[in-house]
C-alpha cells in the first residue's frame, strides 16, 4: 500500500479508530496484524522474509542472554549467524543479480563459459530498512547495550511497524521498543500535529516531487537527446525531487505514527543549507547515516586506530562506499558512495585550511559559497544516483555544458505545467525558509480558528489541485 | 478536549471540506464542458450518425490514417488517439442502435493494439462521450472508479491551464469542414468527418529512430498476457455486436515503415496472424486487409514509423473503399 494512494487514506483513519477503541492489551497485536496487512497489500509472499528476519533477530538475541551462550566466543558466533542470515537474504534478493552479471562479464572477458541464471524476483520493498533495524538490535544486544526483547509481538512490531516499514526511518530498538510498552491515549494536540505533518508530507510528495519527476524522468530516460541545460536543470530538479519524495514519506510516516502515540525519529534537517558534505550527511537521511556511523564507521575506525589519520580516511571511504551500495544493486550507487567518501575525506584532511578561509571571508560570503558548493557537489553525485547506467552518467557529465537551448515537451505538463512546477518549488523553498526562522506551527496554532482552518483547507486543496496523482512510488522504496 | 467536541470538530472539518469540494466539482463540470477537439468530434458525429453507412473505429492509426472523404458513402472516423478496443467497444455499445443506416464497420487491428495496456489510458479525454457515466479505465478497483466519477479530481491539473488561458486547451485547430484548404497553413486539423488531417512528412532517419523507440516501448508491454487476452476479448465483443446487427466488418492492419516491421519478431507476427485467423473463422461477415507490406505506401506517406499522414490516409481509404465496392451488401 502506498502512502500516496487513496486506500491509505481509508486505512489510516480506520486503524486509528480501532486502535483507540480496543483495550490496551490487544493494541500491539492489532498493530502487528495491520502492519503485516499493509505490507501484504504489496506482495504477501514476501512477508515470509520479514518473518525469517524477525525470528532470527528475536531468537538469537534471546540465546545471547542464555547462560549456555554467555561466553564471548559463543555470543560472537550468534552475532555472526544473525548478521549472516540477514545479509544473505539481502544479498540474494538485492545484490545477487549484480554480482552474477559482473561475474558473467568477467568470465566473458577471459573467454570462460559461465552460465549461472539470474534470479527473476522482485526486490522486496523495505528489505534494506528492516534488515538494518534487525542488525542494529542484534549488535546492541551483543554489545550489552540493550536487553533482549522477550515479547515476540513487540519485537515483531519493531521490525514491521507499518508507518516506517517500507522506507524508514531506520529506528533504533532503544527508541522504538519502549514505546510499544506504553499505553497510548488519544490526544487531540497530537492529532493536529500529525495532520499538519501528513499534509506537509503529501504536499512535498505529490505536489513537488511527483511533478518534478515528470521532467526528471523525461531527461534521464533518454539522456542522449538532452541539451546540457536540460541535463543540468533535470539534475537540480532531481535533488529537490528526491528530497521532497523521501522527506515527504518520512513526514507522512512520522505523522501516521504520531496519531497513535508513537514518535519516530527525524530523518532530515534542512540538508540543503549544509556548508560541507560532512554536515550534509548529518542532515540527510539521518537514520541511515547515524546507523552507518554507529555500526560500521566507528568499529572500523577503532579497528584501524593504529593507522592514524589513514585509518579514519580508510573507514570513511569504506563506510560511504557501502552506504552508496545500500541504495541499490548497481555500480552507479557504489560510485556515488565512493565520491562522497572521497569528498568527506578531503574535507576531513583540509579542515584546518577551510577554517583559515572562513576566517578571511565575511560570514555571508563564506556561507553562500560553502552552501552553493555543497549543493553543487550533491547534484553532481546525483547524476550517478539517477542515471540508469554508468555510461549514461558519464555521457551526461561529458555533455553538461554542450548546448544551452531549452525545449521541453511533456504531455502531462500541458501548457504551463513546467512553469507552475518551478513556481511551486519556489513557494516550497520559501516555506522551508520560514520554517527555519519561525515556529510556523505554533504561529498557526495561535491564530483564530477561522484563519487556522483556512490554512488547512488551502493546504488540502493545493494538494488536490496541483498534485500529480499517478501513484508514483516513493524513490526510496527501491532501496 | 472532550471526545464529543473532538468528534464535532472533525465532522465539521470534513463537512466544510465536502462542501468546498462539491463547489469545485460543479465548477469543474461546467468548465470542462467547454470545447475540445474530442467534444467537436462528438458533435460532428452526433450531427451525422443518422445517415452514416460506414463507421471507422480505432486508435490514432485510424484517427490520422483514414479519411472518410474518400469513401463513396457517408462515413465517419470515430477513432481517437489512445483509443483501444475497450473504448471502441464502449463507444459502439453506446451507439449501436443509433446509426440506422450503418452497413460497414472499419476496425484497426495491430500488434501494438493487442498488447496495449489501456488501463493506463488517460480516460479523462473520453468524458465528452460518456459524460453522464464518467468512464473509468478498466481493471481498476472500486476506489479508482469512485475517484473517476469526480471530474474535479481527475481533471484537476487542467485548472491551471484554464485559469491562465480561460479555455480548455485544444491540441489541434478544428475546421468545421470536410476539407482542408490547399496548401494547408498548419500541420494538423480535425475535420468534420472526424479525420485528423496531418501534413508532416519526416526524414528517413527520423522514421527509423521512431520505429526503434516504438518497438522498445512495445517490448515493455508484450509481457502482460492478461492484457492481451482482455484486448482480444473486447475486440471479439465488437465483432459480436457487428454480427448481431448485420454489419459487414473490415479489419485493417495499417501500413508501417519497413524498419518498424523488421524489428517485430517472427513469434509476435505469427501470434498476431493466428488471432486474425481466429476472428475470420468465427465471423463470416469479416474481411481482413493487411496493408503492412503494401508497396503503394512510400516514405512520404508516413507521419512517423506507423502513423500515416494525409497522403497515406488518402491511399488507404481509397483501397478500403474499393473493398467495399467489390463486396456490395
Core attributes:
heterodimer; A: 479 residues; mainly alpha; 2 domains; 72% helix; globular; B: 329 residues; alpha/beta; Rossmann fold; five-stranded parallel sheet; two-stranded antiparallel ribbon; 49% helix
Give the number of DSSP strands of chain A. Answer: 0
Query: What about the largest sheet of chain B?
Result: 5 strands, parallel
Strand content of chain B: 5-15%
Tell me about the largest β-sheet of chain A.
Answer: none
Structural classification of chain B = alpha/beta
Which CATH top level class of chain B fits? Alpha Beta
Alpha-carbon distance between the termini of chain A?
16 Å
- The share of residues in extended strands of chain A comes to under 5%
Q: Helix proportion of residues of chain B, in percent?
A: 40-55%
Count every helix of chain B, treating DSSP H or I runs of 4 or more residues as helices. Answer: 13
In the CATH hierarchy, the third-tier topology of chain B is known as: Rossmann fold
Outline of the structure:
The complex is a heterodimer of chains A (479) and B (329). Chain A has 479 residues and is mainly α. Chain A is 72% helix and 0% strand.
List the helices and strands and how they pair.
The complex is a heterodimer of chains A (479) and B (329).
Chain A: H1 6-21, H2 24-43, H3 47-65, H4 72-109, H5 127-142, H6 152-160, H7 173-181, H8 188-221, H9 228-259, H10 277-283, H11 286-303, H12 309-326, H13 331-349, H14 351-360, H15 363-386, H16 390-398, H17 417-437, H18 440-445, H19 449-466
Helix pairs in contact in A: 2-6, 3-4, 3-5, 3-6, 4-5, 6-7, 8-9, 8-17, 8-19, 9-15, 11-12, 12-13, 13-15, 15-16
Chain B: H1 3-31, H2 37-48, E1 54-57, H3 60-63, E2 75-77, H4 85-95, E3 104-108, H5 111-115, H6 142-148, H7 151-155, H8 158-165, E4 188-190, E5 196-198, H9 204-222, H10 225-245, E6 248-253, H11 258-263, H12 266-282, E7 286-290, H13 310-326
Parallel strand pairs in B: 1-2, 1-3, 3-6, 6-7
Antiparallel strand pairs in B: 4-5
Helix pairs in contact in B: 4-10
Amino acid at each position: 500500500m502506498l502512502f500516496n494512494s487513496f486506500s491509505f487514506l481509508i486505512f489510516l483513519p480506520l486503524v486509528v479508530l480501532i486502535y483507540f477503541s480496543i483495550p490496551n492489551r490487544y493494541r500491539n497485536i492489532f498493530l502487528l496484524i495491520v502492519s503485516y496487512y499493509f505490507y501484504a497489500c504489496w506482495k504477501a509472499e514476501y512477508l515470509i522474509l520479514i518473518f525469517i528476519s524477525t525470528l532470527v533477530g528475536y531468537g538469537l538475541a534471546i540465546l545471547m542472554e542464555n547462560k549456555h551462550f554467555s561466553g564471548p566466543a559463543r555470543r560472537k558466533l550468534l552475532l555472526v549467524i544473525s548478521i549472516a542470515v540477514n545479509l544473505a537474504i539481502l544479498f540474494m534478493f538485492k545484490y545477487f543479480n549484480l554480482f552474477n552479471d559482473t561475474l558473467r562479464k568477467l568470465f566473458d572477458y577471459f573467454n570462460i563459459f559461465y552460465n549461472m541464471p539470474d534470479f527473476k524476483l522482485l526486490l522486496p520493498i523495505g528489505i534494506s530498512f528492516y534488515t538494518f533495524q534487525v542488525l542494529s538490535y542484534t549488535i546492541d544486544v551483543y554489545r550489552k547495550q540493550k536487553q533482549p526483547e522477550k515479547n515476540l509481538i513487540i519485537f515483531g512490531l519493531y521490525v514491521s511497524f507499518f508507518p516506517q516499514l517500507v522506507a524508514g526511518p531506520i529506528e533504533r530498538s532503544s527508541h522504538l521498543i519502549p514505546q510499544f510498552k506504553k499505553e497510548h491515549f488519544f490526544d487531540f494536540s497530537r492529532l493536529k500535529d500529525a495532520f499538519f505533518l501528513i499534509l506537509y508530507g503529501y504536499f512535498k510528495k505529490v505536489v513537488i516531487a511527483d511533478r518534478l519527476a515528470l521532467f526528471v524522468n523525461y531527461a534521464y530516460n533518454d539522456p542522449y537527446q538532452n541539451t546540457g541545460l536540460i541535463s543540468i536543470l533535470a539534475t537540480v530538479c532531481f535533488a529537490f525531487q528526491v528530497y521532497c519524495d523521501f522527506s515527504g514519506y518520512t513526514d507522512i510516516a512520522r505523522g501516521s505514527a504520531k496519531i497513535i502515540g508513537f514518535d519516530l525519529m527525524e530523518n532530515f534537517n534542512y540538508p540543503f543549507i549544509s556548508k560541507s558534505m560532512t554536515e550534509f550527511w548529518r542532515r540527510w537521511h539521518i537514520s541511515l547515516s547515524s546507523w552507518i556511523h554507529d555500526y560500521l564507521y566507528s568499529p572500523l575506525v577503532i579497528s584501524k586506530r593504529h593507522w592514524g589519520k589513514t585509518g579514519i580516511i580508510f573507514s570513511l571511504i569504506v563506510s560511504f562506499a557501502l552506504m552508496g551500495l545500500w541504495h541499490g544493486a548497481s555500480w552507479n550507487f557504489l560510485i556515488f558512495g565512493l565520491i562522497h567518501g572521497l569528498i568527506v575525506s578531503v574535507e576531513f584532511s583540509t579542515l584546518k585550511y577551510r577554517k583559515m578561509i572562513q576566517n578571511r571571508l565575511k560570514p555571508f560570503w563564506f556561507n553562500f559559497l560553502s552552501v552553493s558548493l555543497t549543493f553543487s557537489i550533491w547534484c553532481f553525485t546525483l547524476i550517478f544516483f539517477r542515471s540508469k547506467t554508468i555510461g549514461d552518467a558519464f555521457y551526461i557529465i561529458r555533455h553538461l555544458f554542450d548546448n544551452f537551448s531549452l525545449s521541453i515537451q511533456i504531455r502531462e505538463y500541458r501548457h504551463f505545467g513546467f512553469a507552475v512546477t518551478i513556481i511551486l518549488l519556489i513557494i516550497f523553498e520559501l516555506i522551508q525558509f520560514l520554517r527555519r526562522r519561525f515556529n510556523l506551527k505554533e504561529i498557526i496554532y495561535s491564530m483564530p480558528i477561522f484563519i487556522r482552518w483556512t490554512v488547512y483547507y488551502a493546504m488540502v486543496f493545493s494538494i488536490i489541485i496541483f498534485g500529480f496523482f499517478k501513484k508514483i512510488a516513493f524513490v526510496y522504496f527501491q532501496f | 478536549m472532550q471526545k464529543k467536541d473532538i468528534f464535532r470538530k472533525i465532522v465539521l472539518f470534513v463537512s466544510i471540506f465536502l462542501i468546498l469540494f462539491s463547489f469545485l466539482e460543479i465548477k469543474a463540470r461546467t468548465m470542462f464542458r467547454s470545447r475540445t477537439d474530442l467534444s467537436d468530434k462528438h458533435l460532428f458525429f452526433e450531427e451525422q450518425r443518422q445517415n452514416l453507412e460506414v463507421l471507422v473505429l480505432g486508435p490514432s492509426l485510424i484517427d490520422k490514417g483514414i479519411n472518410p472523404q474518400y469513401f463513396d458513402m457517408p462515413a465517419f472516423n470515430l477513432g481517437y488517439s489512445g483509443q483501444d478496443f475497450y473504448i471502441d467497444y464502449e463507444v459502439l455499445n453506446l451507439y449501436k442502435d443509433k446509426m440506422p443506416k450503418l452497413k460497414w464497420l472499419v476496425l484497426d487491428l495491430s500488434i501494438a493494439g493487442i498488447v496495449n495496456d489501456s488501463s493506463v489510458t488517460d480516460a479523462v479525454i473520453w468524458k465528452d462521450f460518456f459524460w453522464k457515466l464518467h468512464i473509468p479505465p478498466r481493471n481498476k478497483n472500486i476506489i479508482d472508479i469512485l475517484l473517476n466519477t469526480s471530474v474535479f479530481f481527475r481533471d484537476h491539473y487542467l485548472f491551471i491551464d484554464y485559469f491562465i488561458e480561460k479555455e480548455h486547451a485544444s491540441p489541434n485547430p478544428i475546421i468545421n469542414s470536410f476539407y482542408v484548404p490547399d496548401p494547408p497553413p498548419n500541420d494538423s486539423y480535425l475535420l468534420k468527418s472526424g479525420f485528423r488531417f496531418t501534413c508532416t512528412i519526416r526524414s528517413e532517419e527520423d522514421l527509423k529512430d521512431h520505429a526503434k523507440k516504438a518497438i522498445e516501448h512495445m517490448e515493455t508491454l508484450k509481457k502482460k498476457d492478461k492484457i492481451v487476452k482482455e484486448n482480444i476479448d473486447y475486440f471479439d465483443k465488437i465483432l459480436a455486436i457487428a454480427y448481431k446487427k448485420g454489419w459487414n466488418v473490415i479489419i485493417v492492419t495499417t501500413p508501417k515503415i519497413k524498419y518498424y516491421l523488421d524489428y517485430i519478431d517472427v513469434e509476435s507476427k505469427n501470434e498476431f496472424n493466428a488471432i486474425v485467423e481466429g476472428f475470420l473463422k468465427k465471423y463470416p461477415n469479416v474481411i481482413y486487409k493487411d496493408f503492412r507490406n503494401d508497396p503503394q505506401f512510400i516514405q512520404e506517406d508516413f507521419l512517423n514509423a506507423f502513423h500515416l499522414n494525409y497522403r497515406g490516409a488518402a491511399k488507404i481509404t481509397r483501397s478500403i473503399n474499393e473493398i467495399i465496392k467489390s463486396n456490395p451488401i
